[in-house]
């Protein structure tokens, strides 16, 4: 007997059928989704577009700590008892974002095992990414951190096919995420371009050969061989 092919779980279709507690809104470029200090009362899902997550210190210093794109969730801190938003999230381009209030997504997680499994896998993958980011900051040069960031933005290493073309992003934003200066980012980008690792003319095209920068003489990986 031929086996019936299992249909993959489509989170976008599923969320559009959730009964109550959800709204969908379009955010223009640079528009704020929520601000640092706002009540943490909902989870968001990006149907289309890209957002950045920024934190401002008490001294007024701002840092970009994450980028999220289509298919990503954010704001899930409310599910662990976080009373206020720890960061500001704003759109990097015109974006369509679904908001699910805390009560609604809590109910869905309890009643829908397929969604709960998918959401848990997503959070575990994000936690692993945060750990990798910490290792990256501790052990790697700013050049390697930039190379890794570009590869991640192009989806290299994620499920599905990579999308090597990244919509226009400023070097100031890249510098904030890497933790270096704009001038150094400019130097590295020019170097990557001359070596054929990237190409940019408006949009940024990332080639898989950029992996060589990340994999070559990686201190934390080398330590495992000792």
From TrEMBL:
Which branch of life, at top level? Bacteria
SMART domains in the cross-refs: cNMP (SM00100), HTH_CRP (SM00419)
Entry keyword DNA-binding: yes
Q: Where is the HTH crp-type domain?
A: 140-210
Key words, A-Z: DNA-binding, Transcription, Transcription regulation
Q: Which part of the chain is the Cyclic nucleotide-binding domain?
A: 27-126
- Mention any Pfam family matching this sequence: HTH_Crp_2
Identification of the protein by name: Crp/Fnr family transcriptional regulator
